[in-house]
From TrEMBL:
<keyword id="KW-0472">Membrane</keyword>
<keyword id="KW-1133">Transmembrane helix</keyword>
<protein>
    <recommendedName>
        <fullName>DUF1772 domain-containing protein</fullName>
    </recommendedName>
</protein>
<feature type="transmembrane region" description="Helical">
    <location>
        <begin position="6"/>
        <end position="26"/>
    </location>
</feature>
<keyword id="KW-0812">Transmembrane</keyword>
<feature type="transmembrane region" description="Helical">
    <location>
        <begin position="82"/>
        <end position="101"/>
    </location>
</feature>
Amino acid sequence: MSAADALVLAAYAGSVWGMVGLIWFVQRVHYPAHARVPADAYLGYQAQHIARTGPVVGPLMAVELGATVWLCLSPPPGVPPWIPWLGLATVAINWASTALLQIPRHRVLARGFDAGAARSLVTTNWIRTAAWTAHGVLAAAAIVTALTA
């Protein structure tokens, strides 16, 4: 395996597993906590969520996308091409879910707490949780197959 392959695989696995850990925290802790924030503090809480989330997830998602595309176009020796292509499908699911499901619910919550939007945020986020977890398994498989080639 070349140094470039190793670097891309490290960026790939690191970004994917960073998001796996983050999405599980969001799913099990952060999103359910929305319902516990006092009404008089909710707008500030949601504004802070929006302001602070992008700088954390944006770089990870960008590296994940870039590394996944790179691996689709140039898989390292031993990595079956279907692994990064399936990984790219999980990236598409996550980006679509974020844009079409989570962001609209956050926009509702940015106007004030809405129990239905908060419940829906938790429920629909299982899509991203499952997709990122699957991508984590694929990233681990890519590493193992590359190292054992």
